[in-house]
Amino acid sequence: MRIEKFQYISELKNYVGQQVELKGWVSTKRDSKGLVFIVLRDGSGFAQCVIDINKAGEAVFEETKRLTLESSLSLTGNVVQDEKQIGGYEVQVATLQVISIASEYPIAKKEHGIDFLIENRHLWLRSKKQWAIMRVRNKIIFAIHSYFQKNNFLQLDAPIFTGNAVEGTTTLFETDFFSKPAYLSQSGQLYGEALAMAHGKIYTFGPTFRAEKSKTRRHLSEFWMIEPEMAFYDLDMNMELIEDFIKNVVNDVMADCKEELEVLERDLTYLQNAVTKKFPRIHYDDAVKIIRGEKDVDGKNSIKTLEDDVADLKTKKTLLEKEITERETKINSGALKQGEINFNRNKIDTIKNEIKELDEKLTNIPQWLASAKKFEWGGDLGASDETILTRLFDCPVMVYNWPAQVKAFYMKRDPKDERYVKGVDVLAPEGYGEIVGGAEREDNLDFLIERIKHEGLPMEVFEWYLDLRRFGSVPHAGFGLGLERIVMWITGIQHIREAIPFPRFYGRLEP
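Above: the chain sequence. Below: its structure as tokens.
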């Protein structure tokens, strides 16, 4: 049943040659002699709407001239197919009614600093790029639920208040829970294990929290986790499920978010590879050798590849600096109109931001190289190590069998070599790093007790967890997917703060 008596921009393809009524906000506005061009946004999409004084009349034309950026309005007009226009359609306006005239909008076309944009996140979300990111996020969430529901998983919820740590005691947010200490959940996994013992295959999907004082591109203090747990699964079955799951999610997004990915100018090569190629599976020991440059991948060496990257980045920086000089010369020539001057100034600001990113890489890569050459066996992979490793692959990579010393107490030891746990991390290509962490869970009661003691964790808060081994213990496995991490990778954005509507990270609690 349709409730609305108006149409949405996303529906324009169904109304070519017909009159529609649209309601929305002014995204951009451009005046010409006897014409006003408005790009209207309504949440479902963007469309150019043309007000011609000869067709709409002088009264409508004058009303249009009052509109400011982000003013709200209602209009009627005829839909014309035009592939040159945004979305492929244009609306030739017949009538227009102003709903609200917006104050001067603080976010202009010029380049803004990230601090300014984060302070104005409630408004920044309206911009076209952020609109596209949020729509892809929505599709990813839907695809996740669809996959698990089709494969007979039950979606259940883990508590947010917990009495124990899951991923280490140093990153907990402590709260007062009726005069008792409680913590914001780091993971729903332990509760997921209990639910799997009742239902076989389950997944939790909820907010999780880490109190790391970190402002890196990959860290948030509040983020969303998808955590399946499966009874009677081992590590190999877990890895098969993870790969199939990621392939399905990426495929769904590519099929249903073509417009959004175009807005984001996303290179689809790596996403297509994720759908079509088998994910390489690399033992931790081999990953270490690849990072150090001691083992090649298809004839490519990690150290040599990064050294070539530095040379390429220097060349690109030189070309961008040359372009800035050329544009500044045009501006100072006095031959450009004001609109052309503004265009070139905005382009220069964009190029300067590109150069900043290049400079960051040119600073980081030599440090990564130095770190890679002396990487020691038994260490966890940092962001730079993940970048170096995945640089040699064109699809997600699975690193399995990790040293027990860098993984959680609940991961099952490899019976063939107890230095390792039967865990796996999935690393996305293009430098995005870990998006999934999973493992077979320890199902031996005595060994699990030993591990809890070794970690110095309070035994009493884990008694309920130990009951899962006392009463019908079975082999089982699971994994956790960071929603914002996979949003980052699929959309191709460079910072995780744009992957969630209102980011919370060290030092950021507003808006």
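The chain has two domains: 9-100, 122-280+393-499.
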